[in-house]
Amino acid sequence: MTDPAPSISIDMPPLVEHGPRRARVLMIQGTASDVGKSMLVAGLCRAYHRRGLVVRPFKAQNMSNNAAVTLDTDAAPGPNGEQPRGEIGRAQALQARACGVRPSIHMNPVLLKPQTNIGSQVVLRGRVLGNCPARVYHEMRQGLMPAVLDSFERLCAEADLVLVEGAGSGAEIYLRQCDITNMHFAERADIPVVILGDLDKGGTMASLVGTWLLLDQADRDRVVGYLVNKFRGDFSLFEPACETITEITGWPFRGVVRWFEGASRLPAEDSLALERPAETSGGTLNVVIPRLSRVANFDDMDPLAAEPSVNLRWIEPGHPIPAEADVVILPGSKATRTDLGVLRREGWDIDILAHVRRGGRVVGLCAGYQMLGRMVRDPQGIEGEPGETPGLGLLDIETEIGGEKRLIDLEVTDQRSGCHVSGYEMHMGRTTGPGLERPWLVLDDGKGAVRHEGAISADGRVMGGYLHGIFGADAFRTHWLEQVGAQAARIDFEARIEAALDELAEHFEANLDLDALLELAR
């Protein structure tokens, strides 16, 4: 007899009464994961925003360890009146940026952050509910629908157009009954759906027709057409396939999106993007990152990848950390102790220690920072089985995971470098130890508050801290690169993302009939 599965209670956030819907709505569902739904919605958000519409993105449920801090939450203000922060998927944060607005918890009311192969941390409207096995979540998630619909209607009340993104495939019929993010949500919200297929994956015709075949008649009737994404070459060769798809399904062909070369300049949604071959820059500084099993917030590396002097590589399991590496970065993780086990299983711990003995540098970000210490304890089993795991011992610190999740965004100055620093913290736990007497950063908010962040070794070659996004601060990135002997290109990273969003919008204007798509929204 097995023990009963752990469960979490749903502390339902405040719901409000909604009047007639103001916004028109269009939903984008895909034939599979990673077909380009997030980027399509981001580009459409920017395109319609540039046309003067008030646009909002929405994704009922996202599964990702790439999260962003929001300024709003359902939590009560703190004792000093400070507003607690929330968190949503970074894909929806990028889509909010495309709309010219701050991200909101209502844009992604349910966020699942995988911690094991069969369980996730569940975040409802920015607040952690707890950890939940997949089977238990499958049984409980219909209870989340009222909060999901409430968030959706709140966005509809403030916008001219709401663009809804589905999750994975819309034809996972074994999930249909308790679905809160694809066809069941579309039915409950009564919104039209466009299906997106991916030509780059191959099998586009089969995936679109297969989607139609698996849907029941009511769901088929909700679909107002399909789009074909990531096309390269002569589209006239594929036109007969479109005619056949329409003949079989009855769904009108709504256009083709040609391959967008600027996609690499936009943050990727999830770790599927790391499985593609890396484009080496030919740079002189070799930066490597071990691909951990529960890697989180990996877009921390994007600003470094944009630097021509940096040759950035993710090291896959089964491959050693190369001896020619100049810098090893340990990224964030949703399961610190589990990924310490991955480091040891792959022999990466030995490689990192040898790298340090050779005079190499190591940077740890968030969970990666915790791994650099002497010990990581999780007495409550927040990230898995309760227990403790020795760290790499490169910093004289220890971490105990637990307590309230710390969510904060920062705009400060590092007193040591004199550089402006921006970023965010998103972690549970407290780090202590003598190593903190040598902080990596000394942060000044300009209002008299100064605090130490992270730790750095006596020789200055091993450093880490909790601040995500730190390399996105241009002045600090330039300073750091010069410290490690590389030449910085002085890229305005935020302007680079804005330019890529504008180019994406222009790409869609040139490739799609945006007036016709807007007419489909209702």
UniProtKB/TrEMBL annotation:
Pathway: Cofactor biosynthesis; adenosylcobalamin biosynthesis. Pfam families: CbiA, GATase_3. Residues 26-271 form the CobQ/CobB/MinD/ParA nucleotide binding domain. One of its GO terms (molecular function) is catalytic activity. HAMAP family: CobQ (MF_00028). Belongs to the CobB/CobQ family. CobQ subfamily. This is Cobyric acid synthase. The gene is cobQ.
